[in-house]
Amino acid sequence: MNTIDPQVERTRFLYNGLSASLPISLLAAVALAWVHWSLVPQVLILLWLFLLASATALRATLLLYFRRAERQGQDRSRIWLIRFRRGALAMGLAWATGAGVLSQSGDPLSEFFLAFAMAGISSGVMIALATDRLSALLIIGPMLLTLGLALVLPGNGLSPMAGAIVLLFLLFLALMTGRIQSSFEENFRLRQQAESQRGVIRDNELRWRFALEGSGQGLWDWDMITGQVYYAPRWARMLGHESPELAPLLRTREERIHPDDLLRVNGRLNAHLRGETPLFEAEYRMRHREGHHVWIHDRGQVIERTSNGKPIRMIGIQEDISQRKRVEKSLYEERQLFATGPVALFIWDTVDSGRVLYASENVQDLLGYAQGELMSPDFNYADLIHPEDVARVLNEHQDHARSEVHQFEQSYRLRHRGGHYRWFYDITRPERDETGRMQRIRGYLFDQTRLKEMEQALAQSERQNRALLEAMPDLVLRFNAEGRYLDWHSGNSALLYAQPQRFIGKTLSQVLPDQAAWTLYEGIHSVLLHGRMRRVEYALEIGPATHHFEARLVKLNDDEVLAVVRDITTQKQAAERINQLAYCDTLTHLPNRRLLMENIRHAMAVGQRSGQHGALLFLDLDHFKALNDTHGHAIGDLLLQQVARRLREAVREADTVARLGGDEFVVMLEDLELAEEEALQQARQVGQKILDALGQPYDLDGMAYRCTPSIGISLFHGRRLDVEELMRRADQAMYQVKKTGRNGMHVFHASTTRLLHFPTQDRQ
After folding, report:
1. pTM of the shown model
2. Is it the case that residue 645 has pLDDT exceeding 90?
């Protein structure tokens, strides 16, 4: 905290008083000169006035220069205080001259008037310069000493008496200026201490408020004697309220806790109130003003108890952790996706620490390490990287961290537990905080060991013998800056989009479709401009099929680029297959539960804007288990495939048909009518259509078979329900059909929360 220098304050006070004291001093001098004009030689009076005006001008000049220095931040207090005292001495000598001149009048009345005037002037100087005793004495001392001696020395009349009084008054002023200055300094010291204490209190309060508000936490304070609970504004805003809207009672909080969490939360709270735990801490859901629930991390502690240990006051803070919960859920789903398969997921700390925070389960299949080994605090991700690759990989990570890219790709070797190295293609996504600083690194590693071995073998073969270049399965093209074909080589003529005589000497736009030509043009210009290798991808129609190509462009010289073109159709298909495995049922090729959930959420969002209804039809095949047990799973799978085909044919193309597993199917209808009854009628019509379609005989490998479904229907309108609740209602309605004889459909009526049964015709 900044402190105030007493000397700086004294100097500023002294100079600020000059603007008033200087003109008053001149006026007093003129008045004395006028009174003594006929009593003292006029030449002496004029000489004295000249000296006094010069001293006044000197002090006025000091005032101007001080204020300029103060504005420029150059007010060095010690130097300016010395200058002020010198100016005060000059003024004191000028007034001493006046005292000596005016005291020669010889008129007792004038001498008494002069003594009275000088005493008044001295009192004014003492008041104006009370903060600096020396400056006051430099003016008062010469003036009164000269006057007193001038009156005492003649030794006749009353003049010696007046001179003695003046000298005694000088002594009195000398003593008083010291006491006044000491009092000023003491007051200043006390004021400085008070300011310092107020500043500390203010800073502590600001820190406390800033820490609480900046942390995003809401305070609650429970007075158990009165039963009142104070909820801070931040606490209320977490739930979409303002503080005045909430009653200061404990039930205000309890009524908003999710019913599934209330018993657990109260159990932990009561355990702390009984003194069994040092803190109360819990994570639970609370109802927001808009109807949804937010996740809360709540911590509190009893801060006051009675003599017998009964709690009487408790304070706590709450924090909204909904975002963290969503991230945890997403991360869990992602980790489940990468539990098996050829793609490993790594999450590791910053480049500097290199600690592995997470490794997917399939890393043991790819690298031979167990998850626990890699996630040990003593393990560093850089230890896995090949010594020849580690500097490049870490430097690229550092460069990308500074460039704030959202994703970058690398290819490098990682050490297998057996000691050998395997090549991996790493698609890296940095996770950054709000300031853009990289906190964690997420890498999706594709094992490309075989591909790398092939590239290395081909490169070695090309260096040894030009003839072996024919075995390379890539297309090599050479372009100039205009995108004109200069040369080519390929060991696989199937990669050629056109015969060499049709493209050599021509530009890309004359040979390839516009999109592919533009992609290669852009890559060529980028390589020539930056000098770094560039990968581009494009697609071409070759024969009856679409082929995807990756061109690796490198700079040969200032005007030429070499392109190594590879058919990556198989890789694209593999990626699409991975995506299909994640979102589609392998038997029926229908969307699985995960994709269905996403489609339902999307339909709810669309319905929220349009106001239209949607419906969920939950289907279960009657007696399917008996078919499986009697004729085997192969026949059952054949039936499921035919059911899937009939369901797709029975609904609109925009509707979703999904398989949850076993013999359970779900049909989601979108864009139904605005009115609930009309939308329900549409859903029933589709349900009847499905009953008719699935009730027709099936040909199961030569065996005729009849199968009927049980259908549960639940309407939804916007986001009034969460997805799990909607599925539960449709499932509950379907089981009502099972209970009442199967081969029919039930509707869960959302407005009355009861089930309505719509019977259908009996089927065999």
Report:
1. 0.32
2. yes
